[in-house]
Design goal:
The protein is α+β, with helices and mostly antiparallel strands. It is built from 12 helices and 9 strands. It folds into 3 domains: 109 residues, Orthogonal Bundle (Butyryl-Coa Dehydrogenase, subunit A, domain 1); 124 residues, Butyryl-CoA Dehydrogenase, subunit A, domain 2 (Beta Barrel), CATH 2.40.110; 147 residues, Butyryl-CoA Dehydrogenase, subunit A, domain 3. A 4-stranded antiparallel beta sheet has the order 2-3-7-6, covered by helices on one side. The chain has a 3-stranded mixed beta sheet with strand order 1-4-5. It has a two-stranded antiparallel sheet with strand order 8-9. β8 and β9 form a beta hairpin. The longest helix has 37 residues. The radius of gyration is 21 Å and the shape is globular. The structure holds flavin-adenine dinucleotide. The site of flavin-adenine dinucleotide has 20 residues, from β1, β3, α11 and α12.
Length: 403
């Protein structure tokens, strides 16, 4: 693949694919987003089209039927999808994390078994760390995996906030496999748990994995977030990520590694939603008149637009920088944290400014900005809150600058 020389420059391939996704978003996503949001309806038709476009296999290697593209190109695609509706990027996001876990840590058999079906979108993935009492402090999870006499593992526990929890066919789930491990993270294992997509009470091979009704949310509608109840679910040792010999006790480290690329992904979503809010504000401010002229002609509004555009560009640069470093095989934990922190806060701030520019109409469900206003705060929470990003950034800064 050709390498772009500046942070924002795109290769011909990146230009072609982002242009294709932008057209798809303009033609297929934006026109249906409001209706699906208001009815909290899963965008089935859009997902089918995304399968045809190959968007579930962007980062999966060609040998498994994917496009084999890098994180930077993926971030560009996610920005475009989120410009349309962050719920659509949410459908791809957990799938991307699942693919990453398999590509980086999976056994050959696990890759062969899952990646081809995941590349086409026939099988879609979710990932699950959070529990009702645990989000930021992942080491505090309580769900357990116990090895039985026959060599199989039994999973028990309640998981929370699983994006794509119902419609996915495979969930990468973190379990406590050694309750006595000290520190606790050394006793955690990631299991690849299969289930029937769209089914709330699994039977047969997938018995013991139930999906309660989806959680009602302020925004991020259409894509479901659910609890998952593991109640005696039986997993073969082959379904321990990386295999039993190498995977037991490694789940925490595997998941934290995946969260690093997940943070670049959320940063790209922040850029996308902010970009859309700016577009809406630029249009509305030239249409709406007060005191005899379009509000865009008032300096106070122009200053808002200027700050919005500047922050978006800065957020985009941070996002691409973190992605490019990861693609180059460099350490990018600090940069991914910075990108996630800045871009998600930018998403919320820019959306709020666009909302203010819309005056009373911003408060009406007739205007798109109302949806963005409910969607943007999610990005402050998922893949680690802003407080957690600051903890990561602070820790890494001190590690890199030890005296
Ligand atoms: C719509 C949605 C989708 C999600 N999807 C998924 C998913 O697919 N898979 C999954 O595993 N999880 C998912 N999550 C869960 C998400 O990752 C957690 O909500 C997030 O990590 C925060 O955890 P928490 O909600 O338990 O908050 P808590 O950890 O309880 O934190 C509460 C507050 O305390 C702050 N805080 C916590 N610790 C510290 C500290 N040491 N210092 C300072 N402040 C601190 C936090 O920043 C926050 O402001 C999703 C959440 C939402 C809302």
């Amino acid at each position: 693949m050709a390498i772009a020389t500046s942070l924002t420059e795109k290769t011909d391939e990146q230009k072609a694919i982002t242009e294709m996704v932008r057209q798809f978003v303009d033609n297929e996503v934006l026109p249906i987003a409001e209706e699906h949001d208001h009815e909290d309806k899963f965008p089935e038709h859009v997902v089918e089209q995304m399968k045809e476009l190959g968007l579930f296999g962007v980062t999966i290697p060609e040998e498994f039927g994917g496009m084999g593209l890098d994180l930077t190109t993926y971030a560009m695609i996610v920005e475009e999808l989120s410009r349309g509706w962050i719920s659509v990027s949410g459908i791809v996001n957990t799938h991307f994390i699942g693919s990453y876990l398999l590509m980086k840590f999976g056994t050959d058999e696990q890759k062969q078994s899952f990646l081809p079906r995941m590349a086409t979108g026939e099988l879609r993935a979710a990932f699950s760390l959070s529990e009702p009492e645990v989000g930021s402090d992942v080491q505090g999870i309580k769900s357990t995996a116990k090895k039985l006499d026959d060599g199989y593992w039994q999973l028990n526990g309640q998981k929370m906030w699983v994006t794509n929890g119902l419609m996915s066919g495979v969930v990468f789930v973190l379990m406590k496999s050694d309750p006595h491990a000290d520190p606790p993270h050394k006793g955690m294992t990631c299991f690849i748990t299969e289930k029937e997509p769209g089914v709330s009470e699994n039977t047969g091979d997938f018995k013991g994995l139930d999906v309660p009704p989806k959680i009602k949310k302020m925004g991020y509608k259409g894509v479901e977030s659910t609890e998952l109840i593991y109640d005696g679910y039986i997993s073969s040792p082959d379904r321990i990520l990386g295999g039993e010999e190498h995977g037991v006790g490694k789940g925490f480290a595997q998941m934290m590694d995946a969260l690093e690329v997940g943070r670049v992904n959320v940063a790209a979503r922040g850029v996308g939603i902010a970009q859309r809010a700016l577009e809406l504000a630029l249009r509305y401010s030239q249409e709406r008149k007060t005191f005899g002229k379009p509000i865009a002609q008032h300096q106070a509004i122009q200053f808002k637009l200027a700050d919005m555009a500047t922050k978006i560009e800065a957020a985009r640069l941070l996002t691409f920088k973190a992605a490019r470093m990861k693609d180059a095989g460099e350490r990018s934990d600090l940069e991914a944290g910075m990108a996630k922190l800045f871009a998600s806060e930018t998403g919320k701030e820019v959306v709020e400014e666009a909302f203010r520019i819309h005056g009373g109409y911003g408060y009406s469900k007739e205007y798109e900005i109302e949806r963005l206003y409910r969607d943007a705060p999610l990005l402050l929470i998922g893949e680690g809150t802003s407080e957690i990003q600051r903890m990561v950034i602070g820790k890494k800064l001190l590690e890199r600058n030890k005296i």
